[in-house]
Specification:
The chain is built from 40 helices and two strands. A hairpin with a 5-residue loop joins strand 1 and strand 2. It starts with a helix and ends with a helix. It has about 800 residues and is mainly α. Helix 6 crosses helix 22. A two-stranded antiparallel sheet has the order 1-2. About 75% of the residues lie in helices and about 0% in strands. It binds a DNA duplex (15 and 15 nucleotides) through helix 28, helix 29 and helix 39. InterPro entries: bZIP (IPR004827), bZIP_Maf (IPR004826), NFE2-like (IPR047167), TF_DNA-bd_sf (IPR008917). Its main location: endoplasmic reticulum. This is Endoplasmic reticulum membrane sensor NFE2L1. GO terms for molecular function: DNA-binding transcription factor activity, RNA polymerase II-specific; lipid binding; RNA polymerase II cis-regulatory region sequence-specific DNA binding. It is a single-pass type II membrane protein; Single-pass type III membrane protein.
DNA sequence: AAAATGTGTCATAAA
DNA sequence: TTTTTATGACACATT
């Protein structure tokens, strides 16, 4: 009975997850409390009804595992596997950082497009006052939708009184999901990002779920980069502000929506739980939401991935259904088709050329991880809490908190797999543990990185190539050749040989220590590999980059006189930028290094040529500039309040430079951009066109001067940095050369010593065999062997030999003189 | 709170 | 001479 219960609960978890995927809402309590057989039947038998037979068959044939009744979980498992293979494929393709970002961004539109087709779930949700948000869900407004959405939130938030943090969070996530699935966002990552940020804020850092928050940071960073790529700024995700506002906003909706959507115990239970947790601040809000956050996210990510890679017709239904999980009326007709779409990716997954063993290991790592997290969080609730509530709570929670809780839904599902296995075949259960513990380290570097990311519950690691993970440039991909590897080896060899030499040959202590120092320094250099590779590799490209920079500098300076707009561009030649970006992307700079490069190689003038990007170049401003600009360009929907408008104005003001403020104050009729970047002639023409006061003129000239100087300073700093880096590289090269020369010297000394020893032994042998007329050996103290120039050997008295030796010693000195 | 870093500006020299 | 560029130095902001 106990096993049955366990099985039921676990299966129930899987099942609910699956159902949540499908978009069917089922009251689990009824099954759990009263009707066990039906539940079992649902889990075991009819699962085939939700899945397409062909996929099962295919899977079975490929995997070698028989069709398990609990195919739902297997579905999750295979979905995960497919995702894994996708991630691996990413890794394999060595997609550069920027490209991967683009990939994500492009993937979203697909999901949004597909999601925008069936907006049923959204329609349901919008009934509770979300129409503003979900109304423009045809992808027409795209990012604007999002903006309007957030602004709506802000607007509402200004009015709504704060209630329970958990409730708000939950509502927020639901809202976000609505915007996700049906909103037709080109960039669903933005709300996701902000929500994640919110999640991070809401979570107590000390709670067990804080692990997820760390990943969230990574994910946020990645997503943020996407957004930056698309022109959005981090400001969009200003957690501390937005989160609170949204929280409050959600409150508003929560009141109505929750009552609307969840009638019955589930809702009550949820509310109860949430409230209690929110007040007490117990483990639940951090743990369970955290865990389920991950789950939901990963599932959603799964869906998106699936959509991206398997643009089947049915896939179009995913987002909407996912979005409508909580609100959708359970419809029996839907699931099969949906299941079909759900499973279709599995086909491709099984088709993936990757090693089954490896995938299995990957999966095992996930399962292990899940076993830790889910068992401690979700299962706790499942098992320890009263029978009815927890399940319903879980059920309602998972679908309702898609974003923040996204992270672990995936794990939960995967974990469900492991649990399933354990249920059915203990030997299989053993496998994961053994594999994950023992085999993982042995897995090739690719999968190791993957596994590590998995085991660290790193969502970013789950869905992005390792290079992307958080610091992105932190670690060069395993495929990337370590330019310092050879050096390191060399240095180590050097050191070894040196020590060897010093020990064996009784090397001159001073010299030996010197050499040791040398090698130490050298090896220290190499040990600083985290730093060296970048500079080294950069040096490879940097010879070109430096040359290009020098050439471009001269060229630009010459060209600038003739064509000042180009001259304004100055050092920031495209080629150089590309070079360095390539180097950066390929080699994987150190974080600070990449920071350097980003800072230094951003083309300020180019940016300034694009007004909307003008402030991206400056770290101060680009945090808030894009959002401000966005909001400026796309005035929020009618619901905007004065407060937020003021905020917008503030943002605008903040984003504007001092000179821009001054120009505005002086009512200067053209843009600072023109003032600064126009060639002198055109600039003068422009001035002549207007009747400008003396103050205005002087301000304009100051603006021009300052603007040009600003760019000049940027170029100067960039150049300075280039110089420093080049010098650094040169120093490294020289140190390498020095080490090499020293090594060669040591080698020569060693061989010389060996030769001397050999000669000495030969000498003694020959001398020992010499006999005088009387057959007696010559005394070494009285005679010596003298090597003649022609190769002959003479036996001469010691005295003569000493004299000759002295002469020979003097001769070189004389020559020198 | 202090240090490190980034950025804008000014003064000045040079082209 | 005027304009532009380069650069050191400083102040301020951000991290």
């Amino acid at each position: 009975m106990l096993s049955l219960k366990k099985y039921l609960t676990e299966g129930l978890l899987q099942f609910t997850i699956l159902l949540s995927l499908i978009g069917v809402r089922v009251d689990v309590d009824t099954y759990l409390t009263s009707q066990l057989p039906p539940l079992r039947e649902i889990i075991l038998g009819p699962s085939s009804a939700y899945t397409q037979t062909q996929f099962h068959n295919l899977r079975n044939t490929l995997d070698g595992y028989g069709i398990h009744p609990k195919s739902i979980d297997l579905d999750n498992y295979f979905t995960a596997r497919r995702l894994l293979s996708q991630v691996r494929a990413l890794d394999r393709f060595q997609v550069p950082t920027t490209e991967v970002n683009a990939w994500l961004v492009h993937r979203d539109p697909e999901g949004s497009v597909s999601g925008s087709q069936p907006s049923s779930g959204l329609a349901l949700e919008s009934s509770s006052g979300l129409q503003d948000v979900t109304g423009p869900d045809n992808g027409v407004r795209e990012s604007e939708t999002e903006q309007g959405f957030s602004e709506d939130l802000e607007d509402l938030g200004a009015v709504a009184p704060p209630v329970s943090g958990d409730l708000t969070k939950e509502t927020m996530t639901r809202l976000d999901r609505s915007s996700h699935g049906g909103g037709g966002h080109v960039k669903s990552s933005r709300p996701l990002n902000s929500l994640l940020a919110g999640h991070r804020v809401a979570q107590p850092p000390s709670a067990p779920g804080s692990r997820a928050s760390v990943q969230d940071i990574d994910l946020i960073d990645i997503l943020w980069r996407q957004d930056i790529d698309l022109g959005a700024g981090r400001e969009v995700f200003d957690y501390s502000h937005r989160q609170k506002e949204q929280d409050v906003d959600k409150e508003l909706r929560d009141g109505g929506e929750q009552a609307d959507t969840w009638a019955g115990e589930g809702a009550e239970a949820l509310a109860r739980d949430l409230l209690v947790d929110g007040e007490t601040g117990e483990s639940f809000p951090a743990q369970v939401p955290g865990g389920e956050d991950q789950t939901a996210l990963s599932l959603e990510e799964c869906l998106r991935l699936l959509e991206a890679t398997c643009p089947f017709g049915e896939n179009a239904e995913f987002p909407a259904n996912v979005a409508s999980i909580t609100e959708a009326v359970p419809s029996e007709s839907e699931p099969p088709a949906l299941q079909n779409s759900l499973l279709s990716p599995l086909l491709t997954g099984t088709e993936s050329p990757f090693d089954l063993e490896q995938q299995w290991q990957d999966l095992m790592s996930i399962m292990e991880m899940q076993a830790m997290e889910v068992n401690t969080s979700a299962s706790e609730i499942l098992y320890n809490a009263p029978p009815g509530d927890p399940l319903s709570t879980n059920y309602s929670l998972a679908p309702n908190t898609p974003i923040n809780q996204n992270v672990s839904l995936h794990q939960a599902s995967l974990g469900g797999c492991s649990q399933d296995f354990s249920l059915f075949s203990p030997e299989v259960e053993n496998l994961p543990v053994a594999n994950s513990s023992t085999l993982l380290p042995l897995v090739p570097s690719n999968s190791t990185s993957l596994n590590s990311t998995f085991s660290s519950t790193n969502l970013a690691g789950l869905f992005f190539p390792p290079q992307l993970n958080g610091t992105a440039n932190d670690t060069a991909g395993p495929e990337l050749p370590d330019p310092l590897g050879g050096l390191l080896d060399e240095a180590m060899l050097d050191e070894i040989s040196l020590m060897d030499l010093a020990i064996e040959e009784g090397f001159n202590p001073v010299q030996a220590s010197q050499l040791e120092e040398e090698f130490d320094s050298d090896s220290g250099l190499s040990l600083d590999s985290s730093h060296s590779p970048s500079s080294l590799s950069s040096s490879e490209g940097s010879s070109s980059s430096s040359s290009s920079s020098s050439s471009s500098s001269s060229a630009s300076s010459s060209a600038s006189s003739s064509f000042s707009e180009e001259g304004a561009v100055g050092y920031s030649s495209d080629s150089e930028t590309v070079d360095l970006e390539e180097a950066e992307g390929a080699v994987g700079y150190q974080p600070e290094y990449s920071k350097f490069c980003r800072m230094s190689y951003q083309d300020p003038s180019q940016l300034s040529c694009l007004p909307y990007l003008e402030h991206v170049g400056h770290n101060h401003t680009y945090n808030m500039a894009p959002s401000a600009l966005d909001s400026a360009d796309l005035p929020p929907p009618s619901t905007l309040k004065k407060g937020s408008k003021e905020k917008q104005a503030d943002f605008l003001d903040k984003q504007m430079s001092r000179d821009e403020h001054r120009a505005r104050a002086m009512k200067i009729p053209f843009t600072n951009d023109k003032i600064i970047n126009l060639p002198v002639e055109e600039f003068n023409e422009l001035l002549s066109k207007y009747q400008l006061s003396e103050a205005q003129l002087s301000l304009i000239r100051d603006i021009r001067r300052r603007g040009k100087n600003k760019m000049a300073a940027q170029n100067c700093r960039k150049r300075k940095l280039d110089t420093i880096l080049n010098l650094e590289r040169d120093v490294e090269d020289l140190q390498r050369d020095k080490a090499r020369l020293l090594r060669e010297k040591v080698e020569f000394l060693r061989s010389l010593r060996q030769m001397k020893q050999k000669v000495q032994s030969l000498y003694q042998e020959v001398f020992g065999r010499l006999r005088d007329e009387n057959g007696r050996p010559y005394s070494p103290s009285q005679y010596a062997l003298q090597y003649a120039g022609d190769g002959s050997v003479l036996l001469i008295p010691r005295t003569m030999a000493d004299q000759q030796a002295r002469r020979q010693e003097r001769k070189p000195k004389d020559r020198r003189k």
